[in-house]
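WP5 quarterly update. Target: diguanylate cyclase. Source organism: Marinomonas arenicola. Length: 589 aa.
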Amino acid sequence: MKTVPLRWLIVIPFVVLALVLGMAMYLLSTITIANIADRVGKQYIKEVEGRIYDRVQDFVAPLTNIMELNVAAFSNRPELLDNLSSVAGRFYEQATPYSQMTFISVATTDGRYVNSSQNPIKSGQHNIAANFVHKPLTMEGFEYDPRVFIGPKIDSDPTFSYDPRVRPFYNLAVQNKQVTWGEIEPYYGFPVLGINLSAPIYGKDGQLLGVTATSIALVELDKYLASLDLVEGAYLFLAEGNGDLIATSEQGNLYQTTNGVITRSNLNNHSNKAFQLASQTLEKGIQELEVEGKKYLYYLRTIDLKYGKQWQIGILIPSSYQQTILDSYTQSAIIITLILFVCIAGIGYLVAWYIGKPIRRLSQAANDKNLKSIQQLPHVLSGVREINSLSRGLSLMADNLSDIMQNLEEKVAERTSYLQGENEHLLESALTDELTGLYNRRGFNQVFEGAIQCAQQQKQQLTFVICDIDHFKRINDKFGHTVGDLALVSVAMNLRHHVRFSSDIVARYGGEEFTLVFLNTDIAQVLLRLDSIRQGFERNPVVKGEYITMSFGVVHVCEGDILTMEELIEQADKKLYQAKNTGRDQVVI
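Structure tokens (predicted):
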């Protein structure tokens, strides 16, 4: 029988394996890379679409939130409409945080009208407009005065007759008897588009009291789409259901005015051929389009806004983007395959040398037919355990193996104990706010869920409180964030002082916002504790002689009532928002 050297017996299979594995890897990677390139293109579209979707929702949210807040306030407290000067101050405070908010207004059934307005292009300066100050139904502009709200008249603003009851926003809301979207159209005197939302106000007896409205300028959406860093040749658009454009990534007018007639730019009449073709395929999802010999991945998604309004996001990505990825990865796959082949062949040779050399020495010693030759072999002949066992004997190998196992068990036990301690430390860090030592939001969500279940099972009362430091930004701006952190610690100590550690919960919910949960406690007792907390802030400055106040939103759940954590947080957040918007430093139930 023909014999084969041990070295070749090891090297040849390694070389064959390297060839087979390399070819299989190349074929598999070619298919996989093609799929990856397709997925990367679609994933890129999804990522861009998600950013635009979130931006639009956040952009429009103040429009609906403020309108809903005002409808609720005027419906429940119709006496507010008797003094529209105070309402002007309310509108001014509501509009100030939002650069896109152009108008917040209310019109009564007797024709009185007041709004807070700002320039839709140069945002940041809010004024008041009213039609009842000097002469009924005569619109005038006024500066904002924090004491009397309607300040000095702005002489540069025009004075004109204005009856809101004949305006579209008023009539549509009254006619529809519900929240109504206005048409997207340019602001008078400004080259930007805007949209309004109006709602009728009814008293508790069902009598119409007036109409409140909000309006936002859409120019920031156009700027946002244009600012996104897209792959070369990509296009974005935001449009209404009929194809009228709201914003695009392309420069150009969104409407034209001819002989006083305003015409909105539409997808089908846009100068960009890709937009024109996209207007013919308004099916949701990802499709492939070809524009003048150039292929695109086209994605369309509907944005559902509140009260039945729908907009559409359109994204067109050139297929060349995917081809570039495919070419790059294919080249990398070829290089990696070659490197893998060389590495496997080299490893095979090294393994053959490493194993073969001590075995040849054993063979030579055994063939020497001389016991002394075996005895002269090194104590450690090779790094391979099986080869060493031939020279040291089965007995020595058994002893060594026993020692190895004993040491291994000790190390495993030691490592297990260490990892348990680390896990406990990490769990505590993950659930605790580092600054205040209170639960963080994650920790609070865990214990709050359990508290709700316990209260429902045992039919106990539960009171949930969200509180927020008033004007906290002023402390940071005045003293710096280090002092601001000390203030947060002081607030945490005050809150912790007024809860029962055995059953109640206190947590830092985020920023300057804290949460309290009182279990099996009457609402009257809860209110006494909250009042004690407020008195504590009145008596003791949080830092450097600086006193703070807090606003509280409270939701009380009686025995047997069932509310989810999300419902409790949502209701308490609304109460807190009400406390903030009605003077701060108060508890709203």
